[in-house]
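Supplementary Methods S3. Complex input for the adenosine monophosphate-bound model.
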Amino acid sequence: MDCVFCQIVAGKIPSQRVREDELVLAIRDIRPQAPTHVLVMPKAHLASLAEEVDERLAGRLLRVAAEVARMEKLEKGWRLIVNTGEHGGQEVAHLHLHVIGGRRLGRMLPQS
Ligand code: AMP
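Predicted complex, serialized as structure tokens:
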């Protein structure tokens, strides 16, 4: 098993666990880009969102992301990022959602 997030799920690499259920694990990012930076991932290995993702799992990932935002008291807002593939800037090939907040984030898309 050479996937770093699979090793985190298995407890072989230490992590700061924020929330966990039978399908999903949320941990703090080791290089946080904002006061809150949590990664929400499926426990079972899935390379990216480009794979066939079970609808129940996809829904659970989104729900856990929103729960993490509530737990972290991000009432003023937060951002969800899912880097996918090489051009998407994905470094770890195990699907994960970045929940980022706790400060005002710069715009990523041009304003219309
Ligand atoms: P991505 O570029 O979307 O694949 O993001 C991968 C993220 O995983 C980066 O923000 C890294 O800082 C984070 N990361 C890598 N290794 C670890 C680790 N052992 N524990 C927590 N976060 C990690």
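The helical segments are 4-9, 55-71. The pocket of adenosine monophosphate is lined by residues 4, 13, 15, 27, 29-31, 39, 83, 89-92 (CB under 6 Å).
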